[in-house]
Each structure stands twice: as structure tokens, then as C-alpha cells.
Amino acid sequence: MKEFDFEKIPIVEIANEILLDGVKKGASDIHFDPGKDDLKIRMRVDGTLYDYTIVPGEYKRNMVSRIKMIASMNIMETRLPQDGAIKSKIGDKMLDLRVSSLPTNCGEKVVLRILDFSRSSQGLETLGFSEVNLQKILRMIEIPNGIVLVTGATGSGKSTTVYSILARLNTSEVNIITVEDPVEMDVVGINQVQAQHEIGLDFATVLKSILRQDPDIIMIGEIRDGETAKIAVRASITGHKVLSTIHTNSALNTIERLTDMDVERYLISTSLNGCISQKLARKMCPHCRVQRETSDYEKKLINLALGIDVSHIYDINPKGCEHCMHGYKGRICVAEVLLISDEVKTAITNNAPKEEMRRMVYGHSDTHTLLQDGLEKVVLGETNFEEILKLVDLENDIAIHEDLRAQGIAQAPFDLEAALARQQSKNTTPVQAQAVAIPDQTVAQQPVVQETQPAVQETQQVVTQEAQPVQVVEQAVVQEIQPTPVVEQQVIQEQQIQPALVAVQEAQPVQVVEQPAQPVQVVEQQVQPVQQVTQEQYTQPNELAIPTQDAVQVQQVDQVLVPPAAPTPQVVPSMVAATDFVEINQ
Questions:
Q1: Closest by Cα among 368, 365, 366, 372 to 348
Q2: How many CB atoms are located within 10 Å of the residue 211 CB?
Q3: SS3 of 93-148
Q4: 309 contacts 335 by C-beta, under 8 angstroms
Q5: C-alpha closest to that of 531 among 553, 549, 500, 547
Q6: Residue 401 has pLDDT above 50, yes or no
Q7: Are strands 272-284 and 328-339 parallel, antiparallel or unpaired?
């Protein structure tokens, strides 16, 4: 666990560091658990809680108050639960944090939910859906009207999937309106409504008004009651495309859930386009995973679900490595996608028995069970066997596959070679594209670099590009001080830029490439004597060589130190003026 010096470091800085560490570790939640003598802080990474640090008892009240303060909560109220939010930009990511406090017998427990929807904007292809399931999802959202439901437990990634679908459908030709509680992600081009139950603005009330706003696509945050379900179903029948979430364990159970909400079966069969039931499994770290032989039970289960024999599978390295935590890094979606066919719609209307619905959905509609989709990811090396057994209803899925075999309904075996080829192409395509783009970019900007070796690293090319402005400055300096060659040699020796001058005069790009950022650092350090000599004429630090903070320090030194007598007053001012002229032009 991490340790902090609470006596020397302020609580404000410690709280900020805890939030930053949570984001860097990819945590979804940060827990502040009060005890009698201390406050334990834990982080949920990839679905598992890990101990982070312990706050001593004399500082736990200050820590909780600090979190409540930045979340705009009442720090004086400790007897009632409160909700708050923190919006902060960390690095290049704009993250939203939900904050919830709960009074306990040992103090207030605070939980921060880190909302990172960066994957939603990357597209459905990045969420981990198999190729078969992805094509089904794309077909069901292309239907102009109807309802698509995303199902799963809390924290199973339903919102991420819904926002990914909305991002794909969000164009200037359609009017999209959402009603959410709360609005989890602000999307440009979408009209989002926040439900407020305390004033009577619930899902059903907002949906009635949305239908008068000429919508093309409606997104409902969650179907919680029968009234909301009926309005959503009727809206999809009248020519609207509706997206929503609901809590069920499988795609087939979604139909039963809607009937329990008193939605007529003929409405369900007419409006429902498809169901996406999903859960999240931890991904194995590709850097430290190990290969092992499959056990007899694993071979039997894989053969039953996938119809293939596998002798070796990957497993985690419990010790982990520098890239992961105990062998896991990130999570992947395990899904069951049901695309409603005409036969299934007829069976829903006729209230077909559950056994018949099973054979129709999983046998004839080519719907993969959660067990089947999870084991596909096991043989591909994306997750391990234990993770799938924790997620799926093993008895139910095994009964489905055994029943299909008993009825003589054979599913197509899993094409492992084709899946491995697709996986390899996804992993290698970005690298190949980058390898092709780097030489083209280098040739366009640096024609001289063609004489160098073809396997030049990207960092060396960047240094070559950054060294161009320094070369221009050096050329201007040389041209300006040509009348006094003796002083020119003095200045060059003082500034120590001989390698860069050799690169300019002799046009040897290899030397510039092999000197990573050293010429820039030398110029940056040696400009200071020139600034002291010409304090009155120097107006702006060299932005090409001196960072912003260093420039401030140089200005402060100029104001305090007395500039020494200039040895060559006729030459140095002209040199500085030439440097300033180059900076202004650039």
C-alpha cells in the first residue's frame, strides 16, 4: 500500500494525488471506508477492489471533508446521505466523477465513481464484440424503427454500449433526444434531458413530450416500470428508433421481463428488433500471460460449446508484471446478441413454450450463449477460463447446448484459424500503417535524411525536425557576425554549438539525428549570458529552446543581477537582434 506523510503534506495535495492515481490505474471506483481508528482507501480496478492506503484517525475527518468540498456537498451535514459530482480535466481526458456519501457507525463512507467514456467515442469495434455479434448489432441498429435493448447487471458496460451506438447514429440528418437519470456523458448534437423525480419529471412524463418534438431516435436511460416500457414500445411502433437498457440476465429473459411489465405480446413482437445481453470479463495481460495444457473438464466444455478440440490455452501470471495488476489489464465484453427474426416474432405472439423458444433462438437463429462467446475469447487468449466461469450461468448454458445436441440441432463449429487471423490483423494493422507513414512524413520534411539508414527510429526523426529552427538561428547568427570572425569564434566557443554548426555547414544529417535534443539543450543554457549582456535590448525569451517556466526564471535573474560589461558591444547586440528577428518570423 502507498504511504503518505500526513504531517508534512497538506490534505489538499494528498486528495488530488489519490484522484490522479485512481485515473492512472484505470479504477472505476474509489472507496473511502471509515473505521474506528483510521480511514481505509480502496480502488476497484477491472472489477476487483485493491487496498490503496490508510489515513490515520486524526486526519480522516479532514479527508472526507475535502472530498465533499470539491464535490459541492454540504460538509456540515454528516447524518444524511448526499450526492455530488466532480468534473476535472486530467491530462487529455475530460472525466466526470460521481460522489456519494453514506453515514455509518464509524463515520461517513464516501465512494467516487470515475466515469470514463473515452471508449464510447472509439466505436463499437473497440468494445470486444466478436465478429458475429458485431454484425448482428450493426444490422439491428440499421432498421429505421423499432426498439433495441441492452441488458445486464449494474457495472456491466451497458451505458458504454448505448453511447457507442448513439455515436454511430449521430449525424446532422437525424434528431436524437435522450432522457437519462443522470446524464452521464455530454454528446454534441444530441438533445439530452435530465430526469428529476422530485418535481415529477420522470421518464414517462418526458417521453410523452419527446414524441411531440419530431424525434428520429429516442434513448431512454433505463426502463424501470411498466408505464415507461409501454410508452417506449408504442413510440417504436409509430416510426421511431428507440434505444434503452433493462436489467435481465440473458437476451431471452428480456422478453419475459417485458411481459411481466404488462406489455402485450403482439406489441413486443412488432417493436423489438434485438437484445444485447452483456457482462465484463477481465483481460489477461498480453505481456506476461503463460500457456498451459487444458484439463479434461475444460476440453469437454470447450468441445460442447464450440465444437472444437483445444489442447492448450493461455492463463494469467499471478505475479503480474509492470504493465498489469496480478496478470490482468483492462476488461472485455462477453455478450449474447439476439437478432429477432420472423420465426421468433411469431413464437412471441403465440406465447410459445420456453423450451421451444430456446431451440428457436439458440439453434436456428445462430445466437451464441454467454458461455459460447466467453470460451471463444478463452481460446483466443483474451481472457482465462476462471473469469468466464464466474460470469455465466453455467448450468443453464450447459443445458441449452446439451438440449440442442439431443435434438440433433448442430451449431457451426468455431472457426479458430479465421478468428486468430482477424485478431492478428487488428493488432498489426495500426503498426504497419504507422511504419508506412513515418518514412513518407520524413521524406517530405527532410529530403537530406534519405541518405541515412532506412531503419531510423521515430524519436530520432522528431529530434531532426525540432533541430531545424535551431539551425536557422545559427545561420542567422553566422551571417550577422561575419565582419568580425574573431568575435564569432568566441561566441561559438561560449555557446558550445559546434556540433550543430558542423551539421549546418557540412550538411551531415546523420550527426543531427544521432544527437537527441542535445543541441537544443546547449543553446537553451548558453543564451543566458547573452541576455545578461544585453538586458535592455532583450525583450522575449527564446521559445524554441527555453520552456515557459525557465523563461520566467531568466527574467527574474535579469532584474536582480547587474549585467557585466560587454566585451564586444558592437557585435553582441546585432547578434541578439538577429535572434529576436528569427523568433518573430517563426
A1: 365
A2: 16
A3: EEEEEEEEEEEECCEEEEEEEEECCCCHHHCHHHCCCCHHHHHHHHHHHHCCCEEE
A4: no
A5: 553
A6: yes
A7: antiparallel
Cβ(203)–Cβ(228) below 8 Å: yes
Count how many residues are written for the chain. 586
Contact 115, 29 (CB under 8 A): no
With cell 474506528, the residue in question is 36
Residue 93 pLDDT class (50, 70, 90 cuts)? low
For residue 443, the model assigns a pLDDT of 32
Non-local (6+) Cβ contacts of 543 within 8 A are 551, 583
Strands 217-220 and 241-246, by their bridges, are parallel
Edge-first strand listing for the sheet containing 146-151: 191-194, 176-180, 217-220, 241-246, 146-151, 272-284, 328-339
257 residue type, one letter? R
Cut 0.85: pTM above it:
no
- Contact (Cβ atoms closer than 8 angstroms) between residue 550 and residue 558: no
| Distance between CA atoms of residues 133 and 374, nearest Å | 12
What cell does 82 get?
A: 448526499
Report the range out of 281-295, 317-331, 445-459, 520-534 with the highest average pLDDT. 281-295
In the block, which residue shows the cell 535551431? 470
Residue 341: strand pairing partners? none
Report d(CA 562, CA 197) in Å as an integer: 70
Query: Quick check: helix, strand or coil at residue 181?
Result: coil
